TrEMBL record:
Record-given protein name: Serine-threonine/tyrosine-protein kinase catalytic domain-containing protein
One GO CC term, this protein: plasma membrane
Pfam families per the UniProt record, alphabetical: PK_Tyr_Ser-Thr
Molecular functions (GO terms): transmembrane receptor protein tyrosine kinase activity
Transmembrane segments: none
SUPFAM superfamilies: Protein kinase-like (PK-like) (SSF56112)
Coiled-coil features, chain-numbered ranges: none
Ranges of residues in domain Serine-threonine/tyrosine-protein kinase catalytic: 45-149
Domain of life, per lineage: Eukaryota
InterPro entries: ANXUR1/2-like, Kinase-like_dom_sf, Ser-Thr/Tyr_kinase_cat_dom
Amino acid sequence: MFSLLHRNPLSSLDPLSSLDVELAPLRIPLKEIYTATQDFSDENLIKRGENADVYRGVLPLRSKVGMDVVIRRYRISQLPLILTFYEEIKRINSCLKHKNIVSLVGYCDEKGEKMIVMEHVVNGRMEKYLSNQLTWAQRLHICFGASLAFNTINPHAAVKSFKIYLDEDWEAKVVFCFDLLVEYSYTKHSNEYCFGMMLLEMLYGRKTTVKDVNHYLAKMVTNVHYEEGQLDDIIDPNLRKQMRPETLSTFSEIACKCLKKHKYHWQRPGMLHIVERLKKAFEMQWRHENHVRALMRLKSCVAYNAL
């Protein structure tokens, strides 16, 4: 009788009950979340969203110095969205060991709160560095890493550059969280289009705008600059000097195939193909730069010996 009177009213729902048991080891007490965010202080607020607020924090008791985390505090109460919340945690946790996906630290679901806690990524959003701070080799490496992550989660999350963060080693880290109240109509093929937009940002050196996403920039590049061999018109000259020609050709081919309108969506390249091509481009650029460095060292030695 006691167990019946005190049972959670939602526990009779098999999906929620089974998910709750499965995810229990990841639960973080609400008290720790309050401590981590200093009671959700404005100083720790990163941004307010329509359906969730994002906070930075330092979780106590996770290590001697605390763990830097990012906390998404959702505003959801309807049962279908609560189920989606738990399913999302499961999905994130299934990718836990992937080096290019931001790690799940845990979640909190006490007293009506619904929060997901993720690791903090040191260098922040990729878009901050698009204009001039990333070398061509770094851009290739970041895109390759991102493609590995998206190949793992595709088609469960929409590919957007704002989901790509950079760690202390400039490795791409994908934030695998999305707005639980938005019903995405993305397929794996529309994801490939979005991935092509991200590649275009890397090549063009700036974040795409709403107007760009409405196909203007994509059409301009695919129909004019790429197909007519005029890519140099949109690439920063300093970046262009670093490029081995074959790497630009491979990279731009992938981007334009992702962006080009087809009669059938399946004509776009699959993510696995994108991974393989980006890996090839990065390896070519890496060998090219090693060769250039070796030549420079040789010239330096020759000049020194001639003194």
